[in-house]
Design goal:
It is a single chain. The radius of gyration is 24 Å and the shape is globular. The chain is mainly beta. Strands 24, 27, 28, 29, 30 and 31 form a 6-stranded antiparallel sheet that branches. Strands 3, 4, 36, 37 and 38 form a 5-stranded antiparallel sheet that branches. Strands 21, 22, 23, 25 and 26 form a 5-stranded antiparallel sheet that branches. The protein contains 2 helices and 38 strands.
C-alpha cells in the first residue's frame, strides 16, 4: 500500500515476521473467556504479561490470581498463581529493568480501619514475586507511580485530606509523605530526574469553584520541597486542566497539556487524569526557578480542524467559526479529553488526546394512581462514553505549535474511560490508529499532511472460516520497536471445524508496522 509522494508502505502483518511464509499463521493467542476480566501489560522486549482473578479463594482474605508471561512470539514462558486481597482490582503498572510492578486497590468501599493497596513486584526472568501491603488514606485514587532506586514514589488524590505524595523505601520500609492539606489539590503527573534524584509533580490547586492555579513542585527523596513554580496562562480566564512533565538534559522543565477558558464559569475538580473539559493545548517552559513561556492553542484555530473532526462535531465547529468571524470575538470548542503520555521526538514534544462525551438516553414509563389515572415518569439511563475524535500536536522547545493532526473515531462507546487510540512517531514517520469492531483503523500522516486514506485492516483469527459474531473492548498498545499488540474479546463461530458452537475468547495479536520509502 503506497502513500503518495513519500512512497511509504504501511503493512499490518499478523505473522512472525514481515517476510514470513504465508502458512506461518497469525501470532495470536486465544484464552477462553468466561467471567474473567483479563488484564494485559506490554513488557517491552521481555514479553507481555496477562493476568486475571480466578474463582479460587485460599482463605477469607485472598483470591488467587493467575499470571502468564508470553515472549515476543506470544509463547508462554511461565505461569504463576499469586494471592491478592479479595475485591482488589488492578490499577496501574510500572516496568523497572527486569521487574514488573503492579498496583492493586480495593474496588469496593473499605472499612475505616483497613485502607491499603497492594504492590506486587514480579521478576520477569524467573517469576519470583514479592507483595507489599501499603496503608493509604480512605477514599483515595492512585494517580500515578514510579519505582526509582528501590523506592516507590506514588501520587494519591483523595477527599478531605487532599492529595498525598508517598515516598517509600521498599528495602527498609521507611517512608516519607507530603500532604497538601490547606487547599483542594490534585496531582496530575509525576516524574523522576534520575541524575539528581529529584521528584517533580504537576499540581492543580483549586482556590474556589471559579479559581484554580497550576504548580510544578520539586522534592528530594525525603519529601523536602526544593522548588515550587506557578504556571501563568496568557489570559486570566484561561485555566490549565492537566499537565505532563518533561525534564531535558539541561534540567529545563517542560509542561504540556490541555486548558480551558472558563470566563467566570465554575470548573470541575477532577481527581484523576480522565475527562478534563478542554478547548485546546498549551505548552510551558521553566528555566531555573521561573516560567519562561506559556502558549495556548485553541482547537478551533487549528488550520486543519475541519479535516480532523467527524461530521457531527464539524457542524458545531463551523457554527462557532462563523460566529467568531461575525463578532470578531474568540470562540472555543470544549471537549472532554483523555490525554496520552507525552512523547519526545528529537527536539519536538508531542501530545495526543482522545475526545469523548457521556451519552444518556431518556426512558419513559407509565404508572397509575389509586383512581387509575395515568402518571408518566421520565428518567435517564447512562449508555457509556462516546469517543469521536483523537487529536495529536507537536511543539518545539520554545512552545510553538509546529503541526496538528488527528483521526475520526466512528461509533465507539465504552463504559470505562481509557485510552482508545495509539500514536506512533519515528522521526518523520507518523501513524495514528485504533482497534474497533475486529479491525485496525489506521492513518499515516506527516505533520499537517495526511498520507493516503484511512485503512481498515481485519485482525486475523486462528482458523480459516472463523466468523466474527461479536467484538468488544478492542484496544491496541505499543509493545516494543515497531511492534504492537491488539487485544480484546471476541465471539467466533466456525462451521468448517466440525462444530457450529460459538467460542468466546480473549485474544492477543502481535502486529508489526512496516514502513519504508
Amino acid at each position: 500500500m503506497r502513500y503518495g509522494w513519500l512512497l511509504l508502505i504501511l503493512l499490518w502483518i499478523n505473522s512472525f515476521a514481515v517476510h514470513a511464509q504465508s502458512n506461518s499463521g497469525p501470532v495470536r493467542v486465544e484464552l477462553e473467556a468466561r467471567a474473567q476480566v483479563f488484564n494485559l501489560v506490554p513488557c517491552n522486549d521481555k514479553g507481555i504479561m496477562v493476568f486475571y482473578e480466578t474463582i479460587n479463594q485460599p482463605d477469607q482474605q485472598n483470591k488467587t490470581w493467575f499470571f502468564i508471561l508470553h515472549n515476543t512470539a506470544l509463547e508462554t514462558i511461565w505461569t504463576r498463581e499469586i494471592s491478592i486481597n479479595v475485591d482488589f482490582v488492578f490499577q496501574s503498572s510500572f516496568i523497572d529493568n527486569e521487574n514488573l510492578f503492579l498496583v492493586f486497590q480495593k474496588s469496593t468501599k473499605a472499612k475505616t480501619d483497613s485502607h491499603f493497596f497492594q504492590l506486587l513486584n514480579l521478576n520477569l526472568q524467573n517469576g519470583e514475586s514479592v507483595t507489599y501491603s501499603i496503608p493509604m488514606p480512605a477514599n483515595s485514587d492512585i494517580v500515578t507511580f514510579e519505582i526509582f532506586s528501590n523506592h516507590l514514589i506514588l501520587g494519591l488524590n483523595h477527599g478531605k485530606e487532599r492529595a498525598t505524595l508517598l515516598i517509600k523505601d521498599l528495602s527498609t520500609g521507611d517512608e516519607s509523605t507530603v500532604k497538601f492539606n490547606d487547599q483542594s489539590t490534585f496531582i496530575k503527573d509525576l516524574k523522576i530526574d534520575a541524575a539528581t534524584s529529584t521528584i517533580y509533580t504537576a499540581l492543580n490547586i483549586f482556590q474556589s469553584k471559579r479559581e484554580s492555579s497550576f504548580y510544578v513542585n520539586a522534592y528530594n527523596m525525603s519529601g523536602q520541597l526544593l522548588q515550587s513554580i506557578a504556571l501563568t496562562p496568557p489570559q486570566t480566564t484561561e485555566r490549565i486542566m492537566n499537565g505532563q512533565l518533561h525534564i531535558d538534559n539541561e534540567k529545563n522543565i517542560y509542561v504540556i497539556g490541555t486548558y480551558n477558558n472558563t470566563n467566570g464559569k465554575a470548573i470541575k475538580e477532577d481527581r484523576t487524569k480522565s475527562g478534563d473539559p478542554s478547548e485546546g493545548f498549551y505548552m510551558a517552559g521553566i528555566v531555573g526557578d521561573s516560567q519562561k513561556f506559556l502558549h495556548t492553542y485553541s482547537l478551533l484555530n487549528f488550520s486543519n480542524i475541519r479535516r480532523i473532526l467527524n461530521n457531527k462535531q464539524l457542524a458545531a465547529a463551523e457554527s462557532l467559526l462563523k460566529k467568531q468571524n461575525r463578532q470578531n470575538k474568540e470562540q472555543g470548542l470544549t471537549y472532554d479529553f483523555l490525554v496520552h503520555n507525552l512523547q519526545v521526538n528529537d527536539d519536538e514534544l508531542i501530545i495526543a488526546a482522545d475526545a469523548f462525551y457521556p451519552e444518556y438516553r431518556q426512558v419513559s414509563t407509565m404508572s397509575y394512581d389509586f383512581y387509575g389515572r395515568p402518571m408518566p415518569y421520565y428518567y435517564t439511563i447512562f449508555e457509556g462514553y462516546q469517543y469521536f475524535n483523537a487529536f495529536v500536536a507537536g511543539f518545539n522547545k520554545q512552545g510553538e505549535l509546529g503541526w496538528s493532526n488527528g483521526i475520526k473515531i466512528w461509533e465507539m462507546k465504552s463504559f470505562q474511560i481509557n485510552q482508545k487510540t495509539e500514536v506512533f512517531i519515528d522521526d518523520d514517520e507518523m501513524f495514528i490508529f485504533y482497534n474497533h469492531d475486529g479491525k485496525i483503523v489506521s492513518k499515516a500522516f506527516h505533520k499537517f499532511n495526511d498520507i493516503g486514506t484511512i485503512e481498515n485492516t481485519q485482525i486475523a483469527t486462528n482458523f480459516p472460516g472463523d466468523r466474527l459474531i461479536e467484538n468488544s473492548q478492542g484496544n491496541i498498545k505499543h509493545w516494543y520497536g515497531n511492534n504492537f499488540v491488539a487485544y480484546g474479546y471476541q465471539t467466533l463461530q466456525n462451521n468448517t471445524q466440525g462444530s457450529s458452537e460459538r467460542r468466546k475468547v480473549f485474544y492477543m495479536n502481535k502486529i508489526a508496522l512496516d514502513y519504508q520509502y
